[in-house]
Every structure is written in C-alpha cells, then in structure tokens.
C-alpha cells in the first residue's frame, strides 16, 4: 500500500489498483489481444495486393534511376509513414546503394505554414506538387480514410503536371483511391490500416532495391563485355 500526505500533513493510504477478474490488467490484456488480432486482416489484405506493391517498387526504381523524383504526403500518422518512405530512398533500405530524390511535402515546416496561412490548409500539398513536381515524377499519398481534401487537391495538381499519383488508403473504394491512377487499399480499421501502410512501404522498398540491384548488375555485365 502506498502512503501519501494530505494537505494537513496526515498520512492517507492510497489503495492499489484492482486486479484479477474484470480488473484493469485483464481488460488491458484483452484490448491488446484484440488489436493484434485485427492486424491479421490488414496483412491478408496486403497479401492479396502483393503484385501491385511489387509493380510500384519496380516502376519507382525505373523512374528514379532515370532522374525522376518521388513526392509523398499524408496527414498525422500518415505523414510519418510518408516520411518513412522518403527516408528509405534518400538513405537506404537494406544494402548500400545510391541515394534517390524523394521529398515529403509535409516535412518543410516553413513552406507548410506559409502555404497554409496564405492559401488555406487544403492547398498545402497541391501548391508544393506544382512547385516540385515534373512530368514523369511519382506522387504517393497516404490516408486511412481516403477523404482528406488536401490530398485530393494534390492529386488534381499532379494530373496538371503529368505526375503519376498512387494512394495507400484504408478500406475502399474511397475518394482518394478513385482519384489516383492506382491504389492499395488496406481492408482494416484505421489503426491497423496504418500499420499495414508501414508494411506496404517496406514491401515497395524491397522491390525498389531489388530492381536497382538488377539494373546495376546488368550494367556491370554490359561494361565487362564491352571492355577490350
């Protein structure tokens, strides 16, 4: 038992939390187990779309090797996931390789707040897409709801610039999945869909690195054959 002092200075016993049947420990355990169980539908949903994730990684590698750029954005937790993706490309995922151009549109705080202040938060990504994007670039947008107005406006800006737009969303169809050229929709509740997005990000990076390695190996083989 814990003893605390009352304002008058007398000792007051502080009761320990209830445990046992129906107590906090049992309830918390059940909640955690339920959360973990709900990850499984997200994984199964991703497994059924593994081909698309592989295609994204391969296509992204081909474009970035050709000098194009990845733009990524999301709100809240999805912003963190988008920034995770760009960090893997600018840094590295597994093996050593060259860095690639990838920008998280929500990460530059001065531009973010300036655009929000002058044009409204719904324009915060669209204006940056127009600033940084070039024809042939790729825009990846993450949203568990698929309904964020600022992401939908970013898709329209991408179309104006000839930029390919892909979406990672929660259950669909939803406005964002419908607006983008392609989408991977994780059929799970929001928290588990967001966890699925991180797995999807890593899957894309795995395919990306594999294609970069294949291209590097093919180039090395060609160089050896052409040497006198």
From TrEMBL:
Pfam family, one: SIS_2
GO BP terms in the entry: carbohydrate derivative metabolic process
UniProt KW Iron keyword: no
Domain of life of the native organism: Bacteria
Keywords: Isomerase
InterPro entries, per database record: GmhA/DiaA (IPR035461), SIS_dom (IPR001347), SIS_dom_sf (IPR046348), SIS_GmhA/DiaA_subfam (IPR050099)
Gene3D superfamilies: Glucose-6-phosphate isomerase like protein, domain 1
Database matches in CDD domains: SIS_GmhA
Keyword Isomerase in annotation: yes
Lineage: Bacteria, Bacillati, Actinomycetota, Actinomycetes, Micrococcales
Name of the protein described by the UniProt record: Phosphoheptose isomerase
Molecular-function GO term, any one: carbohydrate derivative binding
């Amino acid at each position: 038992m814990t003893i605390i002092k009352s304002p008058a200075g007398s000792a007051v016993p502080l009761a320990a939390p209830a445990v046992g049947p129906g107590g906090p420990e049992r309830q918390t355990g059940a909640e955690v187990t339920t959360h973990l169980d709900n990850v499984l539908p997200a994984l199964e949903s991703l497994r059924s779309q593994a081909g698309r994730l592989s295609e994204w990684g391969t296509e992204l590698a081909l474009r970035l090797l050709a000098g194009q750029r990845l733009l990524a954005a999301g709100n809240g937790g999805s912003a963190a996931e988008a920034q995770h993706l760009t960090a893997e490309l600018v840094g590295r995922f597994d093996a050593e390789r060259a860095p690639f151009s990838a920008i998280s549109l929500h990460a530059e705080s001065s531009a973010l707040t300036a655009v929000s202040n002058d044009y409204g938060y719904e324009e915060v990504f669209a204006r940056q897409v127009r600033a940084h994007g070039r024809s042939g670039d790729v825009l990846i947008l993450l949203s568990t709801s698929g309904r964020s107005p600022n992401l939908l406006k970013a898709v329209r800006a991408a179309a104006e610039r000839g930029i390919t737009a892909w979406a990672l969303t929660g259950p669909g169809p939803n406005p964002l999945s419908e607006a983008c050229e392609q989408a991977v929709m994780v059929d799970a509740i929001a928290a588990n869909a967001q966890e699925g997005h991180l797995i999807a990000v890593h899957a894309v990076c795995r395919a990306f690195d594999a294609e970069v390695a294949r291209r590097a190996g093919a180039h090395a083989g060609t160089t050896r054959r052409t040497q006198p």
